Amino acid sequence: MLKNDLNEFKRKDSNSTKFRCPFCWNKDYPYLSDVRKHADIIVHDTGETETERAKHSTLIRYIPVVIKSGQDKLSTAGEDKSSDDELFV
Question: How far is the CA of 29 from the CAs of 1, 4, 16, 18, 46, in angstroms?
Fold first, then answer.
């Protein structure tokens, strides 16, 4: 279900800058870090089902991967790929 895609956490509104938990979808958060905090609360809530706690536990580990992959895409966007090809000639 989870992919390395920041859009998975964004609201479906075209102009929205808010994020949502992909498992709950009932509250907006201004920052992706707030979604992570939400997941942490669910994981430590003994009143939640094991299934919900497991899903949100995965989310806690997954959000940093999404953030890192987004930063990597930005940092490599302007690089010239021809220099990599020349190394193997």
Answer: 21, 19, 11, 6, 23
Domain ranges of the chain: 28-71
Residue 34 to residue 19: CA distance in whole angstroms: 9
**Greatest CA separation found in the chain?**
61
Q: What is the pLDDT of residue 46?
A: 93
Taking 70 as the pLDDT cut, the residues of the chain under it are 1-16, 70-89
Residue 29, strand partner residues: 19
d(CA 19, CA 7): 9
State which amino acid sits at residue 88.
Answer: F
Rounded Cα–Cα distance for residues 51 and 63 (Å): 19
40: which 2 tokens? 């942490």
- The residue whose two tokens read 């497991």 is 54
Query: What are residue 41's phi and psi, to 5 degrees?
Result: -65, -45
